[in-house]
Design goal:
33% strand
């Protein structure tokens, strides 16, 4: 056998071996990733089912309002956003950082110095809010209570 022919056949064999190894690695990688994705989907479904069950009564959110679009409100905390839906039929109130006046004669007066009833359209971009939500079976979040946290002037 000619030495040149032997080198060509050896080179082609080496190239074919490399291509076969890369192809096998790609197939194994895709298969592995598919298994991870399926496990993550199953875990996510399990979490949604648990959180939307009657056992978990509420989830608390706190953040700054960054978007209001219809009944959907998006808040941000530490550069992470979350969106929930809300209606005017839920309990919405404002909590002041400081009382309206320095004197209050009884507990009712005292509470009214800090809390007041609010409406959904009182919520503005930039407000800090605390929200009680429940998870819906489809994975969405529905607010049942919102407190607008007002900063002192």
């Amino acid at each position: 056998m000619n030495k040149a022919l032997f080198l060509i056949i050896s080179a082609l064999g080496g190239i074919l071996l490399i291509v076969a190894c890369v192809a096998a690695g790609a197939v194994l990688g895709i298969s592995y990733q598919k298994n991870i994705d399926l496990a993550l989907i199953e875990k996510t479904d399990s979490i949604i089912n648990s959180l939307s069950s009657g056992v978990v009564s509420s989830i608390g959110l706190v953040g700054q309002v960054v978007k209001i679009e219809g009944s959907e409100i998006t808040i941000s905390y530490n550069n992470k956003n979350i969106t929930f839906s809300a209606t005017d039929k839920i309990n919405i109130s404002s909590l002041r950082e400081k009382p309206l006046s320095d004197t209050a004669s009884d507990n009712q007066d005292f509470l009214s110095q800090y809390y007041s009833a609010s409406k959904l359209n009182d919520i503005k971009i930039g407000d800090t809010i605390s929200v009680g939500v429940k998870m819906l079976s489809g994975g969405g979040l529905q607010a049942y209570s919102i407190v607008i946290i007002e900063k002192a002037p």
